[in-house]
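hiii, so i know i said id send this last week but things got crazy w the move. better late than never?? heres the sequnce for the chain we talked about at the cafe, plus the structure i predicted for it. fair warning i was half asleep when i ran it
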Amino acid sequence: MKLIKITLLVTGLLFTGWLVSQTGLDVIWQELVGLGPWWVLFLLPYLGVYFFDALGWKYSFLKETKVPYWLLFKARLAGESINYTTPTAYVGGEPVKAYILSKKKAASMPDGLASVVIGKFLMTVTEVIFILIGILITVAVKDENQSLFWALLIFFGAFLVFLGFMMVFQQKGLGKFFSEKTRKIQFISSYLDNHKEGIEEFDKVLARYYRDEKSQMFLSSAFYFLGWLCGALEIYLILYLTGNPISLTTAFAMEAISVAIKGAGFIVPGSIGIQDGGQVWVFIFFGFSASVGVTFAILRRVREVIWIVLGLFFLFREWGTSRPNFQAELHLPSLTETGKAQALGSLQK
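okay and structure toks below
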């Protein structure tokens, strides 16, 4: 699996390089020069994304759990930097967010983990709704590839129904389910035995939230949806600055399709190649030049790098040069030589 991911990453980088070479560095440079100092404005919409997404996370907690917004903003920044740079389907940084809150004594681990599960789930629900609306707009304004977009509409509609079942499943005991499925591994079994109360509390928080916190869930979903809308502002802004003004609804549709394509590259770190090629295709499909699409893809990567660096800076400031000791912080049982042998034996079975 690791070899496959590395291969996909290298292929993505080569494909992105090919896109740039085919478009021409001189053409791309002219597009960038044409933006002038106004290109800095391109960085602003994603500040809105982080602002609204942190608010979405804030309302993913039970009402009685009060976590400072600024801490949520920084923890999200740190977690997303891991999501973007590791091939973990954009979920590898989620436990880190809960860990930071626990370390800062802002929330217990059960509350923190439940909030990131709820937040990620509601973000996904609003993402699918965002994509569905974008596809409907595309079907209404474009005659090409109608069968493709109707197929996507059916797929994401079915996925939204699946997410409805997933919400019910979370209320039935998500922690208990995974505990039972992983109990055969010896050292995990030991951890589960020592943390029954925490796992039960995690499940109780999930159940209570979906059952009792309807207003919190609505506000969280609304803020996450506003975050997706800010992504559309990036497209609107780059086209306006390059002398290609479009309507906000067209920008909405273009971003929605870009998000859907990016999701297909979840196994590749940063969706390298898939995100970039998809964005160029979207720009061409909506009648714009490939050079504008490549310029947009480059600027979006620059923006991502800036936010990743900020996130990693926060992680470094929190942990210094040492690695976070999850075992000590979360009170995980240490593995003795016997325990290690038992674990290896369990895995071999």
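btw The chain has one domain: 23-348. thought thatd interest u
miss u guys!!
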